[in-house]
């Protein structure tokens, strides 16, 4: 996977590799001239030999610096491009996931994978790649130099290098599960922090700060332990390199000393070999850091790969039909023996069937857990039915392009989410090209316009994170305006007026009936006035349809509906009387 993203910047990678080859050639020539410079003192003109060889060393060092710097610049480009493409791919992977993916994936873990895990790969894509290539080339250059100047020392050098590489492999094998645990524990740590920030009100409401603090400390300790464990193995490498370097130096001095006794002219060669041994220290030490970076990146990418390779449950069919000028929706909805469960062993809906003609209103009633919200989640294909089919305009919703289908369905959910932007931008979220007149019209229908104009900045007022600067009723009305702005053929209202007073709800419903008379409206509500005004009422119990018809039919024939209606009537009548007494 690492190489895949390297190849996305292969042009810069080739340039980087070229500069590194040139840099290594210059670097490997320097020990030769160091040996000649020292050995030159045995010549007839030592000063002249010293100046020439010293000048060559300076020249090659300068050329190496220039080519090495050029390689680093290209390496930075490779790193930035690789991480850029990786971030793009993981964001696209997250965007394409279905609702079910987020049901089983912790938000904190997902944030960690999209941020810190990707940051963890920065080193291997950048300096790791540069140093890896550079170290490999330098080791190859040292081996060639040793074979050229001293075969006996080469027989010691090559096994020494092999042992250091085997040690790197051993350490990497031990570190991989540790680094994976480090990334997992960091994800848990991120998730704990996110929950405490998002759920700050609940934590303080129940005074559970100590409990949450302990949870954080537990996850933080796990992250700390994993980090410390990695040092135990990583600390083995550097001392081993010093031992190898010491063995090589002693071997060179012993073998070189014996040769020097026989032939004093080999002194320069001994110095050259010692310079090569010194040059070998950098790539050997770097291999340990590179291996560490690689294992860290691989552990992070293992988690990232899980996101990239996750396939969405909801996909367009190859011959899916676009909804546009040629194909428009009337809004007829048919549920035909639909069964569905969020988990394989439990069905939330069981053989649900009903029919709502376009432009009509249907209210869905039922006890908690009866499947009301599940029905409205299935219509826009947030989830795929397990059995049966859902049809819009007598065509299975799976035959439409998902994006087009959802653009024709306006949803006002019970839990309103607003972005930390202006009121106007939140209302126009589903329609970027919406005009000011359209935004104002939608807000008027939602009975929100009069409130907005009282604000100092009007429609440019920032709502705060998750709409914290608005009341519950104001957030719901803004959500209604956002749904209405796209002029949907199907409007779904999931208890969307529960936070507004009866008078405001009446005004909203009145405007909706006027503006959305050709729109099929699905309502989940507890307000009896809304229920009575619906064209159809669907009664659910434990995932099954136990009643379907209008109010007059069901109040006479359906025991469950009569019970629910009377309960709501008594509750709401008592509330109205209490409000009147308070006023």
Furnish the topology, listing elements before pairings.
Layout: H1 2-7, H2 10-39, H3 46-96, H4 99-104, H5 107-114, H6 116-120, H7 122-149, H8 151-198, H9 200-205, H10 209-234, H11 237-262, H12 267-308, E1 333-340, E2 349-356, E3 361-366, H13 372-378, E4 387-392, E5 395-396, H14 402-407, E6 409-412, H15 423-427, H16 436-445, H17 449-452, H18 472-485, E7 490-494, H19 502-515, E8 520-524, H20 528-533, E9 536-541, E10 544-549, H21 551-557, H22 559-582
Parallel strand pairs: 3-8, 3-9, 6-7, 7-8
Antiparallel strand pairs: 1-2, 1-4, 4-5, 9-10
Structural class by helix and strand composition: alpha/beta
Q: How would you name the CATH homologous superfamily of the domain at 2-308?
A: ABC transporter type 1, transmembrane domain
Count of runs of 4 or more consecutive helical residues: 22
**How many strand units?**
10
Query: In one word, what is the shape?
Result: elongated
Largest sheet: 6 strands, mixed
* CATH class annotation of the domain at 2-308: Mainly Alpha
**How does CATH name the architecture of the domain at 2-308?**
Up-down Bundle
Low-pLDDT sequence parts: none
Helical percentage: 55-70%
Question: Taking Cα atoms only, what radius of gyration do you get, to the nearest Å?
Answer: 36 Å
Instruction: Tell me the span between the first and last alpha carbons.
Output: 68 Å
- Determine the mean pLDDT: 80
Q: Give the neighbour order of strands across the main sheet.
A: 6-7-8-3-9-10
The CATH topology assignment of the domain at 2-308 is ABC transporter transmembrane region fold
Strand content: 5-15%
